[in-house]
Amino acid sequence: MAIPVTRPAWQRKGFNVAEMRKLARRRLPRPVFDFGDGGAENEETLRRSEEAFGTLKLLPKPLEGIGERDLSTTLFGRKLDLPFFVGPTGLSGLFWPDGELCVARAAAAAGTGFCLSHASTSTMEDVAAVAGKAPRWMQVFLYRNRDLTRDFVERAQAASYDALVLTVDNQILGQRERDLRNGFSIPPHFTPLQTAVMATKVGWLRRLGPRLPNLGMANYRSDITGVSDLGAMAKYLNAQLDQSLCWKDVEWLRGLWKGPFVLKGILHPEEAVAALDHGVDGVIVSTHGGRQLDGVISSVEALPAIFDAVAGRMTVLLDGGVRRGVDIVRALALGADACLLGRPQLWGLAVAGEAGVAHVLSIYRKEIDRVMGLCGLPNIAAIGPELLAAPNREFF
To answer: For the chain, is the Cβ count within 10 Å smaller at the N or the C terminus?
Structure first.
């Protein structure tokens, strides 16, 4: 007689992304949860990023007779089984040991790819080694010490990363007030009260406690920065952010990188057109998860004008506020080629490591498939603007 398979309690309870967030909140010390979950200042943009999706209403055609759906798509010549990519999130190793390795393996197993954060707790070489043949992109920042950025580019090329992603909206750090309130720092230092509270998060403490003193940004080499102390490294990198970032610097990076080159943090259609003129292959419409400039337009609100400006001439991706599979379908209907997932995969990581990330990716896959089936959509190419009842394109 077959023995029934009992799923772990976290899988039964975490039936959607919002529930996985709740489970992550229970498992993590508050400073760590807030580091991943919080936004800048009043968190207006963070809230708007999610809420704006709800203004887009679907017009389904269920009598199309669609039996099975094909969720695959192609980005920069690489086929993905799913129309989403795992986005860059710094210090994933705070949420689970070797967090970035867990995420890379889960993304590869799901048939999609990932973008590695510059601030990963595992080196880009170690992450590439576990990713197999899955698509992988590398995030970079522009520093005053150009050798820092050049080092990333050369190492990413040597480790066979497929695309380079320059984040352009982080040259002045946003004020993340949850972190200020919690006294969060890198590497983490906890007050006596926080330490007492942290002791109640037994699972997290058992997994991460011994690693905390040495947890930092693994990709930065002391022979280039001249800094070896982990605490001093974070301060050094913040001071190195070049606030004069401009199109000349984009051209410089374009000349260094041999492969698809993407700008992350584009919200204005004029900048998307300029990116095209400077040899950029794709843009990620993003507010940095609401963690930088508070009060800006949400990614999904900015998307239609950007798509209209560059339609068919470059890859357009959306990042921010995607909490349901239907949000991805809505973004595709507005012109996005695919979406990036940031916080949701962190919540899965915090709950159950690689298995938790795999579960979150599976949630999105099932939700997208269900939405497509109910709307009469056989494949990703069939998703177009006619799916939305009244998309508002008047933002610029």
So the answer is: N
What is the residue-wise DSSP string for 10-25?
HHHH--SHHHHHHHHH
Rounded Cα distance between 126 and 159, Å, is 9
Structure tokens of 370?
Answer: 């269900």
Give the integer Cα–Cα distance in Å for 384 and 396: 21
Contact 281, 317 (CB under 8 A): no
Cβ neighbours around 111 below 10 Å, total: 16
Contact 341, 323 (CB under 8 A): no
pLDDT tens digit sequence for 191-218: 777 777 777 899 999 999 888 888 889 9
Report the alpha-carbon distance of residue 189 to residue 205 in Å, rounded.
14
Give buried/exposed letters for 275-290 (b at 16+ CB in 10 A, else e). Answer: bbeeebbbbbbbbbbb
> Is residue 123's pLDDT more than 50?
yes
User: Structural domain boundaries of the chain?
Assistant: 9-384
Distance CA 356, CA 346 (A): 9
Structural tokens at position 371:
């939405």
State the Cα–Cα distance between residues 367 and 48, nearest whole angstrom: 22
Strand ranges for 118-229 from DSSP E: 136-140, 163-167
Calpha distance 252→247 (Å, rounded): 9
Instruction: Report the residue count for the chain.
Output: 396
Question: Quick check: 96 and 67 in contact, CB under 8 A?
Answer: no
Question: Residue type for 363, please?
Answer: I
Are β-strands 84-86 and 282-285 bridged in parallel, bridged antiparallel, or unpaired?
A: unpaired
Report CA 98 to chain centroid distance, whole Å: 17
Among all residues, which ones are annotated catalytic? 288
Question: Which two structure tokens, joined as six digits, stand for 223?
Answer: 């022979």
Q: Which amino acid makes up residue 116?
A: L
For the four alpha carbons of 175, 179, 183 and 184, in that order, the dihedral sign comes to negative
CB contact at 8 A, 260 and 281: yes
Look at the domain 9-384 and name its fold. TIM Barrel (3.20.20)
For range 105-128, the mean pLDDT = 97
